[in-house]
């Protein structure tokens, strides 16, 4: 149940950011749900491999290269989901930062409701 709620909250965040950022396009809410699912799968499978392969660069940049990896994950989701389009790397980077921020807010509200 908690996983489904996290996917739906991520989809809401994707729709909100697509309406705010002109470089991110989501066709409908179903596409946003697929984006949330694909992002979750890519973060579990591809992201650890990218981190391992780019470990020297990540250490050299004191972890800032992880932002680039997150943007790459967003661009890959744009490639895999038909109704989701990212106009470029910088939009993916900004989307990644804002999505992480919104997810932290939404998930903290989820934990707060669990305690009550």
From TrEMBL:
<keyword id="KW-1133">Transmembrane helix</keyword>
<dbReference type="Pfam" id="PF04020">
    <property type="entry name" value="Phage_holin_4_2"/>
</dbReference>
<feature type="transmembrane region" description="Helical">
    <location>
        <begin position="53"/>
        <end position="77"/>
    </location>
</feature>
<keyword id="KW-0472">Membrane</keyword>
<feature type="transmembrane region" description="Helical">
    <location>
        <begin position="28"/>
        <end position="46"/>
    </location>
</feature>
<protein>
    <submittedName>
        <fullName>Phage holin family protein</fullName>
    </submittedName>
</protein>
<keyword id="KW-0812">Transmembrane</keyword>
<feature type="transmembrane region" description="Helical">
    <location>
        <begin position="89"/>
        <end position="110"/>
    </location>
</feature>
<dbReference type="InterPro" id="IPR007165">
    <property type="entry name" value="Phage_holin_4_2"/>
</dbReference>
């Amino acid at each position: 149940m908690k996983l489904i709620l996290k996917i739906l909250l991520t989809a809401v965040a994707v729709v909100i950011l697509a309406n705010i950022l002109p470089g991110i396009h989501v066709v409908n809410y179903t596409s946003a749900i697929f984006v949330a699912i694909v992002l979750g799968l890519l973060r579990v499978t591809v992201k650890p491999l990218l981190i391992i392969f780019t470990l020297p660069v990540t250490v050299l940049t004191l972890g800032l290269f992880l932002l680039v990896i997150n943007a790459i994950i967003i661009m890959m989701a744009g490639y895999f989901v038909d109704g989701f389009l990212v106009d470029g790397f910088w939009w993916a980077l900004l989307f990644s930062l804002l999505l992480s921020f919104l997810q932290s807010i939404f998930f903290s509200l989820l934990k707060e409701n669990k305690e009550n």
